[in-house]
Inverse folding.
C-alpha cells in the first residue's frame, strides 16, 4: 500500500486528536503543536510572479524531523487495522508492504482478506495511491 501525497494529506485536527488520545500529549506540548500546525501557509513563486499566500489545514513538512514524527503519529492506526485482519506488514514512512500466506488452490480467500484490509485502512482517513496499492 502506498499512501497518496502522504505528508500533504495529514489532517491537522485528526493528528491533534491522535496525539492527545493515543499518545497522551496534552496541555502545553499540545498547544505548541497546535500553534505550529495552525500557522502553516504556502505559496508558489515563479520568477517575479507569486501566488497568494494560502493557509493550510492539512500537511506536515516532509523534510523536517518533526514532520516525520507527526506523520508516524497520524499513520499509527494503520498497524492496528492491519493486525485485525491477521495480515503481516512492514511499514516505512508512507509505504506499507502487506504479507499474507495464500494457498495456491484457494487464492480467493486471501485476496478477500487483503481487499477488506485495504478498505479498512481507507476508512481510517488514509488515502491510498490506486496505481501503487
Amino acid at each position: 500500500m502506498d499512501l497518496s501525497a502522504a505528508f500533504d494529506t495529514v489532517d491537522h485536527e485528526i493528528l491533534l486528536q491522535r496525539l492527545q488520545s493515543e499518545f497522551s500529549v496534552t496541555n502545553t506540548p499540545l498547544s505548541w503543536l497546535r500553534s505550529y500546525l495552525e500557522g502553516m501557509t504556502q505559496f508558489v513563486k515563479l520568477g517575479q510572479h507569486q501566488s497568494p499566500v494560502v493557509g493550510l489545514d492539512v500537511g506536515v513538512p516532509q523534510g523536517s524531523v518533526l514532520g516525520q514524527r507527526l506523520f508516524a503519529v497520524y499513520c499509527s492506526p494503520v498497524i492496528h487495522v492491519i493486525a485485525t485482519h491477521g495480515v503481516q506488514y512492514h511499514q516505512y514512512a508512507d509505504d506499507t508492504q502487506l504479507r499474507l500466506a495464500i494457498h495456491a488452490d484457494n487464492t480467493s480467500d486471501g485476496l478477500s482478506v487483503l481487499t477488506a484490509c485495504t478498505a479498512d485502512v481507507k476508512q481510517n482517513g488514509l488515502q491510498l495511491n490506486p496505481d501503487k496499492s
The radius of gyration is 18 Å. The beta strands are 41-42, 45-46, 49-50, 54-55, 88-92, 95-99. Residues 107-123 form the longest helix (17 residues). The chain has a mean pLDDT of 87.
